[in-house]
Design goal:
The protein is an all-alpha fold and 472 residues long. It is built from 18 helices and two strands. Keywords: Membrane, Signal, Transmembrane, Transmembrane helix.
């Protein structure tokens, strides 16, 4: 793999960062007040990425019984996802934003119909708080669990839900003004510097271009989560009372995709090349079904079992089942299989079971910004690289970040126009491109550092007014 081949070179280049090149030394002799070191570049870029990501990502409420280690491990995992696939986090943010608005509108209407004289206005912040698991049942006889949106709606309808003030919900948020100001100033400083350098004919490094891409996409992410409380450590407790059983809300979008996958099984199920292996027993099927979050309800079990001959799935059938599971996760419809009655916290990337239209729009918006993310990397198309191979790898990886999301946009567009047959085959093609997309992202990260070993002396010059602006 090209990225693995470049890893030793990355280590060598990082080790040599403290040793200035001859051209850099000459530049420092001309005017030391208008020069920067490679360490300055790395620190500025990493500080900007860290500030943007830390402020932009809004986690759900953790399990009240979890320790700080488990909570921080979850947050680190989500942060890594935000660095590797920020477009997926944008899709999550858009789904939560759309669902939060719907929850606020629905509950406000129910509260008016219930004629609650002491009701408070439902806001988007309250909608976010419901989605992120902000309300928990208080029952000494059982483990705490979050309220679903259906349970909240039922309580609002019978006037048994005491809505907290928006100011009280905001008070639980850890998004203090100081952290927002520091992150905003650091981001503004970096963007202004990046725009000013080309004006003065000073080149940007590849690491700065990659940082600019992260900055742009994190600002969009933060915008959709603007009304969502940040880093809420403890939920609001609600007294438990007997409620009528409510049917979990389900989105129909991924059910349609799963039907397409089932039809695909019909086409390959009788092929001799995918004959049943002795190792694929009924126990294997049960294990796959229970371990997969998309194939664990009774209806899905019945649907898949009808396609299996002799009680054992073929290799292709197991492969299609796993693809259906992966597809739900990628498209953001994994909430269908979440049963909050059995969980002590809402899962990561939970969006409150958005309706199918919201899922489609969220995917479309996320894919658009994924292409923007790749297009920013294309800004280094004509810049100098240490070698021709690295230039070609950067160009190919940048084009992959633009082209692969375009395939998914085509899939979403065809689905909206009900071109099911084309959607079915393009879905299989798009799933194959996922490893290449992740590889392209890894290549760009590695090249952003390895190309620092050979920079023109103009890349080490600063914009003249930047040395007088305080920054991190």
């Amino acid at each position: 793999m090209p990225s693995l081949i470049l890893l030793p070179e990355l280590l060598q280049s990082v080790g040599a960062l403290s040793q200035p090149t001859e051209s850099a030394a000459q530049a420092s002799c001309i005017d030391i007040n208008h020069c920067r070191t490679i360490c300055n570049i790395i620190w500025s870029c990493l500080a900007t990425i860290a500030a943007c990501t830390w402020v932009a990502v809004h986690w759900n409420v953790p399990d009240p019984r979890s320790g700080m280690i488990c909570v921080n491990l979850d947050r680190i995992a989500i942060t890594i996802c935000a660095l590797l696939v920020p477009e997926y986090i944008i899709g999550w943010a858009v789904r939560q934003w759309l669902t939060a608005q719907q929850i606020a509108q629905t509950n406000e209407k129910l509260a008016k119909e219930a004629r609650d004289c002491y009701r408070r206005l439902w806001t988007v912040t309250h909608g976010f708080f419901v989605i992120m698991g902000g309300f928990y049942f208080l029952d000494p006889k059982s483990t705490p669990r979050p309220l679903s949106r259906e349970q909240v709606e039922e309580r609002v309808e019978n006037s048994s839900f005491e809505l907290p003030k928006k100011s009280d919900v905001d008070d639980k948020s850890k998004a203090d003004m100081f952290s927002k100001v520091v992150a905003s100033l650091q981001t503004l400083w970096f963007v202004m510097q990046s725009l000013a350098r080309p004006i003065q004919q000073l080149p940007l490094t590849k690491l700065e271009i990659a940082t600019l891409a992260y900055t742009s996409i994190n600002m969009v992410m933060y915008g959709f989560w603007w009304s969502k409380p940040l880093n809420v450590g403890r939920p609001v407790q609600v007294r438990h009372q007997q409620m009528s059983p409510s049917q979990p809300r389900r989105s129909q979008t991924m059910d349609t995709f799963q039907t397409a996958m089932t039809h695909q099984m019909d086409e390959y199920g009788d092929a001799d090349v995918f004959s049943t292996s002795p190792s694929f027993s009924q126990e294997t099927l049960v294990m796959v079904d229970h371990s997969s979050p998309s194939i664990n309800d009774a209806d899905s079990m019945t649907s898949w079992s009808k396609k299996i001959k002799g009680g054992s799935p073929t290799r292709m059938q197991l492969y299609i089942m796993k693809l259906a599971c992966l597809l739900k996760t990628i498209m953001g419809a994994q909430d269908n299989e979440v049963d909050l009655l059995k969980l002590s916290k809402v899962p990561n990337f939970y969006a409150g079971v958005p309706i199918d239209v919201h899922i489609i729009w969220a995917d479309f918006i996320a894919l658009i910004f994924a292409m923007v993310f790749g297009a920013v990397h294309c800004a280094a198309w004509s810049l100098m690289f240490p070698s021709q191979a690295e230039k070609l790898m950067w160009r190919a990886a940048s084009m992959a970040l633009v082209g692969i999301p375009a395939i998914y946009i085509l899939v979403v567009t065809l689905y909206m126009f009900e071109k099911q047959r084309l959607v079915k085959y393009l879905l299989l093609l798009s799933l194959i491109t996922i490893p290449f997309y992740l590889l392209a992202r890894l290549i760009l990260i590695v090249l952003a550092f390895t190309t620092l070993r050979s920079l023109p002396f103009t890349a080490l010059e600063t914009v003249y007014w930047t040395t007088f602006i305080p920054h991190l």
